[in-house]
Design brief:
heterodimer, A: alpha+beta, five-stranded antiparallel sheet, 20 strands, B: 275 residues, MetI-like fold
Chain lengths: 348, 275
């Protein structure tokens, strides 16, 4: 089911958290609300599920205006960060609870619970209490409980934040698989860009209560709308250098010149964003510096390079480069992948 | 810890300090089952005579012990039930619901909790007289329950505060009404608190002395604590053996309840939700 937010506004007392937000989530799509903490992404989620009341604008499910409906009448499944399983009930009773509240027939409840348990791979765990389940298993039970009454919309609030790294990887794939199999429209709230990029069809990147960019993950990475987006996406993060535009040359602070930057003549100073994978020996030479720090990550190594003028660049290389801290390097840039921003942070 | 910290000095000190208590308890028990010569503390004979008040006809002017025990039981149980059911609902409202004057009620609760309620006793006496509940069990129960409530509500509010909001949010998302959420999802989480409060207010009712003494002095509404005082208030012939035996009889349920439920009672101070 398509979800539409029209001029959605939310205030807490006299603080406006979100103002005039517009967003459309397409039917069957999985959308990520991504942003740093405090950007309003959870607020948006809670408004969609009805826990927070909207202070302005509308929320539409399909064509139906649900802005004033209580949570109980919205038919939205929610998976909470803490899973919020009912500790006194076993997994079966947890999953059956929404159906019992709806007063389904016992036989129907049993059938539906087993169907959803099969989908989420927890059939053997139904007798256990939440306390006897591991994090990943609790997650699956929470997912099953959210999905069992066939909601129109599935909302996931930081569902992977409490899991360890390996389980997170596994549950990422699992949640996406279940979402695709059920074809449900889903919104994922996360502050982890990797989750957002790997699980979702589109990402809405939020900052200070506004959507800064709404795009496919690859587009957002390669084509950020502004400096904030470029900075937020990408791990290890991008580095920025102040640059001057002189004639048809772009001059980096260390004096390195880049020809033909295709910039309007009126722009004098700007910032160049250089992702770690766009700087290295494979792109030729011209940028001299000293290795300041090496972070070995197994498959890759991350270098902090201090340029001759004191500014810093990051580079990520396949492991095996024979370098140690203090070595001099002379590397090049991948000119096609440079991201240029004006001083206000807007993309050029 | 045990390496640089010897146990025995502590044990010796604690033993000395608690010796008077132990002697008191020991003599309470020994004296009720034995007789001793008038000039000695050493018992010479085992007897159950002193418990004859349990099966003999009551002396004239004195209430029947079983009637008094029943009164005490009704008094304590009803108080406990009233305190629990009111605290259960009120504390939830104070902990979770947004309503006008919530802060005022919370503040009032703390003040009432700390208020020396004894000072109200004259006013309560007058009110009970006016509404015709003076010298009735019902009247004392109402007063006792009302005075216990601030404590009960405060304790229960602590338990509710520990229940994660997400559980309620999840319940509401699952389509349950606020009432169902409270009844089916939240109450089970605070069950240890309800249980502890139940025992606590029962024991408090069981040992209450002042209120029955002032507000229900007659024989009909007599409870064990007032029965006990009536025994020694009885001018000329003070029967200490009988007094001790009744005291023993009075204390046994309390000791039994503490022994059986001590773990559950700890909850009220722990305040945890882990069941």
């Amino acid at each position: 089911m398509q979800i539409t937010l029209q001029n959605f506004t939310k205030t807490f007392d006299d603080v406006t958290v979100i103002e005039d937000m517009n967003l459309t989530v397409k039917d069957g799509e999985m959308l990520a609300l991504l942003g740093p903490s405090g950007c309003g992404k959870s607020t948006t989620l809670f408004a969609i599920c009805g826990i927070h009341r909207v202070n302005g604008g509308k929320i539409l499910f399909g064509d139906r205006d649900v802005s004033d409906l209580p949570s109980q009448k919205r038919n939205v499944g929610v998976v909470f960060q803490s899973y919020a399983l009912y500790p006194h009930m076993n997994a079966y009773e947890n999953i059956a609870f929404p159906l019992k509240v709806r007063k389904d027939k016992p036989a129907d409840i049993k059938r539906q619970v087993h169907e959803i348990a099969k989908l989420t791979h927890i059939e053997e765990l139904l007798e256990r209490k939440p306390g006897q389940l591991s994090g990943g298993q609790q997650q699956r039970v929470a997912l099953a409980r959210a999905l069992v009454r066939k909601p129109d919309i599935l909302l996931l609030d930081e569902p992977l934040a409490n899991l360890d790294a390996k389980l997170r990887l596994e549950m990422r794939a699992e949640i996406r698989r279940i979402q695709l199999e059920t074809g449900i429209t889903a919104i994922l709230v996360t502050h982890d860009q990797v989750e957002a990029m790997s699980m979702c069809d589109r990402i809405a990147l939020m900052h200070d209560g506004k959507i800064v960019q709404l795009d496919k993950p690859s587009e957002m990475y390669n084509n950020p709308a502004n400096k904030f987006v470029a900075d937020f996406l990408g791990n290890p993060p991008i580095t920025f250098l102040d640059a001057k535009h002189q004639g048809d040359l772009l001059v980096l602070p260390n004096g390195h010149e880049i020809k033909n930057p295709k910039l309007a003549a009126s722009i004098q100073s700007l910032q160049v964003g250089i992702r770690p994978e766009c700087f290295g020996p494979q792109f030729g030479t011209g940028i001299k510096g000293v290795v300041k720090f090496i972070e070995k990550q197994g498959r890759e190594e991350l270098f902090d390079i201090e340029l001759t003028d004191g500014s810093q660049l990051r580079s990520i290389q396949p492991s095996g480069a024979d370098l140690s801290i203090g070595d001099d390097v002379d590397w090049g840039l991948s000119l096609d992948d440079l991201l240029l921003f004006d001083l206000q942070g807007e993309r050029l | 810890m045990s390496h640089n910290f010897r146990h025995w000095p502590i044990i010796v000190i604690l033993s000395i300090v608690s010796l008077p208590l132990i002697i008191m308890f020991a003599f309470q028990i020994i004296d009720t089952f034995t007789t001793h010569p008038i000039d000695s503390m050493i018992p010479d004979r085992i007897t159950f005579e002193q418990f004859s008040f349990l099966w003999d006809e009551a002396e004239t002017g004195r209430a029947n012990i079983w009637k008094v025990t029943l009164n005490t039981f009704i008094f304590a149980t009803t108080t406990a039930v009233v305190v629990c059911s009111v605290s259960m609902t009120t504390a939830y409202a104070l902990s979770r619901l947004n309503f006008p004057f919530r802060r005022f009620f919370l503040g009032g609760l703390i003040i009432l909790h700390a208020f020396p309620t004894v000072t109200l006793i004259i006013a309560i006496f007058l009110i009970l007289q006016i509404i015709g509940l003076y010298d009735t069990l019902l009247g004392v129960i109402m007063v006792k329950a009302a005075l216990e409530l601030p404590f009960g509500i405060w304790i229960m509010k602590g338990f509710y505060d520990n229940v994660p909001w997400e559980i309620e949010m999840a319940g509401v998302q699952d389509g349950a009404s606020r009432f169902t959420v409270w009844w089916k999802l939240v109450l089970p989480q605070v069950q240890p608190g309800i249980f502890a409060l139940m025992i606590f207010s029962f024991l408090s009712g069981w040992s209450e002395f002042l209120l029955p003494q002032v507000l229900a002095p007659g024989n009909d509404a007599q409870v064990l604590s007032t029965y006990l005082t009536a025994l020694i208030a009885d001018d000329t012939k003070i029967d200490f053996a009988l007094f001790k035996a009744v005291g023993m009889f009075y204390a046994i349920p309390v000791i039994a309840i503490y022994l059986i439920f001590q773990n559950k009672l700890m909850n009220i101070y722990g305040g945890g939700t882990k069941g």
